[in-house]
Amino acid sequence: MEREIRRADVVIAGGGASGLAAAIELGMKAPALDVLVIEKMPEPGRKIRATGSGRCNISNTGAAGFNRIMEFFREIGLVTKTYKNGLVYPYSESASDVATLLTERAASLGVDFACGEELMSVKYAPASLVSDAAPGSRNVFMLESVIKDRDGLRSITTYASFVILAMGGKAGPTYG
Q1: Cross-strand bridge partners of residue 154
Q2: Which strands sit side by side in the sheet containing 80-82, from one edge to the other?
Q3: How do residues 147-156 score in pLDDT, each as one tens digit?
Q4: Residue 66 is inside which H or E element, if any?
Q5: Do the Cβ atoms of 84 and 60 come closer than 8 Å?
Q6: Cβ pair 116, 7 in contact under 8 A
Q7: For 43, which DSSP code?
Q8: CA distance 63 to 103
């Protein structure tokens, strides 16, 4: 089995709504960081595309953190509309538009994507014990993942200073 090694400052495990939002926040607030999103599905945001019967209920005016959520979406250019019942949807009422916007915004901020890659393990070690650690690193996480392609399995080891686990829940298992 072929083995690849790569490095990133931050690895985000999961390319759904939370993972994409984290990637965008990092891209906007810390553009010098090398951010990598590892997503097991062929593309990020698959579950987003199916949410709200394809309309994508963004939030609710009574939700905790509502103002911050809406500020985030305004910052990335999402136009929304609010119904009398307090539900907030993208103006287009298209979940696909939301997924595309999140993915494209993250990519425009320099976030890298590794799609079709399944994360198998995450281990922590002090940088002094890891020979492949980036110079000056204090924390090192070693992530093991695999890609299944027509040539078989490829194993990838990724070294990162920080890891965000945003792998979602069990709702809609066919989407990721």
Answers
A1: 2, 147
A2: 59-60, 87-90, 80-82
A3: 988 878 899 9
A4: helix 66-75
A5: no
A6: no
A7: S
A8: 24
